[in-house]
Amino acid sequence: GGLNCLGRMLARLRARSMVALIDVHALPCNSGCVSDGIDCANPLAFSADALVGDIPRCTGACELTGGERVCDGQVYHTRRGGGGGSRRWVDVGLRSIASLAEWVAALPAADAAAVAGLQLANEPALNSDGHDDAVKAYYRAAVTAARAHLPSLPLYLSFIPPNDEAVPAFVAGLVAAGAGRLVIDQHWYLNWAGPPGSQLGWEEMHRRACSEAAQTWRPYVAAGLPLILGEWSLATNHDEHVDIADAAARAQLRR
Question: Which superkingdom, per the lineage (predicted)?
Answer without folding.
Answer: Eukaryota
